[in-house]
Amino acid sequence: MTRPVVLVLIDGLGYETAIQRLGYMEGLAAAGVARRWRMRTELPSLSRPLYETVHTGVAPHEHGITSNDTVRLSSQPSVFSVARAAGRKTGAAAYYWFSELYNRAPFKALHDIEIDDPGQIIQHGRFYQHSDFPDSELFHRAALLADRFRPDFLLVHPMGADTTGHRFGGRSKQYETVALQIDNQLAAHLPRWREAGYDVMVTADHGMDEHGNHGGSVDIHCLVPFYHVGAGVKGGIVPDEVSQTSVAPTVLNAMGLAPPASMKARPLT
User: Fold this and answer.
1) Amino acid 6: pLDDT
2) Which CATH entry fits the domain spanning 5-254: 3.30.160.100, 3.30.110.70, 3.30.70.260, 3.40.720.10?
3) Ramachandran quadrant class, 29 (left: phi over 0; alpha: psi -120 to 50; beta: rest)
4) What is the pTM of this model?
5) What is the largest CA-CA distance in the chain?
């Protein structure tokens, strides 16, 4: 079955905080509406390398985006490029590093901050440059993209958890509050996306420790949730740990598209 997909990539939200503070998502899993996995990120557990891993299914040491300072276009087949090549529509409401990975590098705000161009890999893009851009505004931009253009693949990338974690630490009350606020946004928007026929997947790029750091190999940096709400998806909580390289093939499988050979992990659903 071919289904459009919304992928919500929550920047910097670790597994422990997610299962304790994403009450709406956990409620869906407990009710058998969503399926939830514990997912281990690739290394280093940094944002730009893992943005690329999430969308290509390839580890940083292979795809070459090994630092947040590596500014260049992706060299791998990605969910965006595979969907685009198959004639599907793509969209993103996300931090500008995604524009640099899949549309043009370096980012030029005057030309790239708002994109509606069928020739681009990300055809409909609303990109922000400041890490404290409000998550509620980001979700509204994503909702407008879904309503106006109905992309077959839509990335939604809120940054509030990462920004707050760096400022106050990943065990702070401020970090936990942001997680609750993101869950509230999911509760508001996910039902509308489901009514529109979308599968919705929710995950994170990496976690955050109590000092406001990530990048290493410890569990608090490397364990994140992965939720899938969709037609025919068996709900519940999966005890087994899975790899972050599974995200891209899982998205493409839901869209009815064959993952390329570079995506070696099996789809989760």
Assistant:
1) 99
2) 3.40.720.10
3) alpha
4) 0.98
5) 46
